[in-house]
Amino acid sequence: MSSNKIYKVVVVGLGKRGMHHAKFFKANPRFELAGICGRNTAKVAKAAADLGVTRTSTDPAALSREIRPDVFCFCTPPSVRVDLINVGIQSGAKLIAYEKPMALSMREAIEIREAVQSAGVKTVVSHQHRYGQHYRRVKELVASGAIGRVHTVYGHSVGWMLQILTHLADYMRWYNDNQPAEWVMAQAAGRGKLVDNHPSPDYIAGFIQFANGVRGVVECGAGAPDVPEVDYWWRKNRIGAQGTEGFAEVLTGGGWRAITRDQKGVISGEGCMNYDLDMPPYIEDIARWLDDDNAVHPCNGDSAYQGFEIMMALVRSAIQRGQVRLPLGPAEPELEALSRVLPNTPVLYSTEANRESYGS
After folding, report:
1. What is the Cα–Cα distance from 207 to 187, expressed in whole angstroms?
2. What pLDDT, on the 0 to 100 scale, is given for residue 349?
3. 74: domain range?
4. Whether residue 101 has a cis bond before it, omega within 30° of 0
5. Which residues of the chain have pLDDT under 50?
C-alpha cells in the first residue's frame, strides 16, 4: 500500500539523539517536523533555527495538544518514559517513537504496553543499528543456512546494561528469528553504574534459553570481553550466531566476519554504526507502517518489549540466584531490588582496555 499523506511529527528532547530524529524526520518528504520541545530554552531556540521550525515549547503536553501530531517522538532519559507515553497517547498520535530502553522496570514496561495497546497506538523503539549493512549481512548469512543449524546466539559489550543490553537482546533475537525466550539464568557484579541515568550493575552475564532450543549467551559491562578491533566503547559490541557449519558475527564499529559451509577460511566485510546511514530507512519504515498496518516496523514496540523482558529476567535471576521463567509479571522494580543484594566489592575487568573504555 502506498500513500502520499504527509505525517506531522513532534520531537521532544533535543540532545544528540533527539536532534538525530528531528533532522531525519525533517529530511523525509513524508513527514512535517511540526514542532520541537526541550527543557532548555536556549537549546530549543538554537535547534529551531537550525531546523527551520517555528513552533517550539518547553511543555510537551501543551505543544502536542496544539499540534495534534501523527507521530509523537521523544528522546529523553529513561526516567520519564511512562509520563511521555501518556502525553503521546493523549495527543492523539497514531505512532509513538522513543529511545531505548523502553522502561526502567518490568512493571513500567507492562504499563506502557497495556496503555498503547488499549489506545491502539503503534510504537517504535530505537534499535536502529539493525539497518547497518554489516548487521544485515550477518542476518542474511544466518537466514540462508550458510552456517548450518543455529545452536547459539551471543552478544557482548563493554557498555553497561541499560545502555547496551537492550540492543544486544534485540539483535540476538533477530538472528534467531525472533523466537521467544523460555528461561534465563544470570549473575551480576558492581554497584558503580547504579547511580547512572541508565542505572545498571557494572557487569552482568547470563544464559537465555529460546523456545526453538537455541541458547543465548550475553555479557554486558566492565567485565565483558574487550573488542580490540574497535576503538570507542559505544561501538565495542559483538553480536552473532554459531551454527553446525560455521559462524557469523557483527562488530558494531568494525564490520562483519564469518566462516560458512562453502567458504574456505574467514570471509568479512565493512560496516560501522553510522546514524547518517541507519536513520533514513528507520524513518522511512515509520511512514510505511503508518500507511499500512501490515508493514510492521522492524523496531516495533512488541519486539522491544520481548528484548526488555529478557533483560529484566536476567536481573531477577541475579537477585534470586537461580533460573527465571518467562513471561514475567509485575514485581518490585528490578534495579531497586538488585541494589540491595549486590555486594560492595569492585568489579574485575577483563582487560585494562576495558577499564579505560568503561570510564574508570
Report:
1. 10
2. 79
3. 7-128+276-299
4. yes
5. 360
User: Based on the domain organization, do 82 and 160 belong to the same domain?
Assistant: no
d(Cα 40, Cα 47) in Å, to the nearest integer?
A: 11
Residues 169 and 293 in one domain: no
Using one digit for the tens of pLDDT, what is the confidence trace for 298-339? 999 999 999 999 999 999 999 999 999 999 999 999 999 999
Cβ atoms of residues 68 and 91 within 8 Å:
yes
Interhelix angle 334-341/301-320, rounded to 10 degrees, is 20
136 and 255 share a domain?
A: yes
pLDDT of residue 4: 87
Selection from 57, 59, 54, 90 nearest residue 72 by Cα: 90
Residue 147 near residue 261, CB atoms below 8 Å: yes
Output the pLDDT for position 357. Answer: 65
With the C-alpha atoms ordered 152, 212, 263, 251, is the resulting torsion angle positive or negative? negative
Examine the domain organization and report whether 182 and 86 are in the same domain.
no
pLDDT at 345 (0 to 100) = 84
Residue type at 306? Q
Q: Find the angle CA(313)-CA(196)-CA(110) to the nearest 5 degrees.
A: 35
Residue-wise over 318-337: b if at least 16 C-beta within 10 A, else e? bbeeeebebebeeeebbbeb
The DSSP symbol for 236 reads: -
Helix (H) or strand (E) holding 255: strand 255-259
Please indicate, yes or no, whether residues 222 and 241 belong to a single structural domain of this protein. yes
Domain harbouring 16, CATH code: 3.40.50.720
Cα–Cα dist 21/165, whole Å: 22
Res 2: pLDDT: 58
pTM, two decimals, is: 0.96
Q: How many domains does the chain have?
A: 2
CATH number at residue 212: 3.30.360.10
72 located within any domain: yes
Burial classification of residue 5, based on how many CB atoms lie within 10 Å of its CB (0-12 exposed, 13-18 middle, 19 or more buried)? exposed
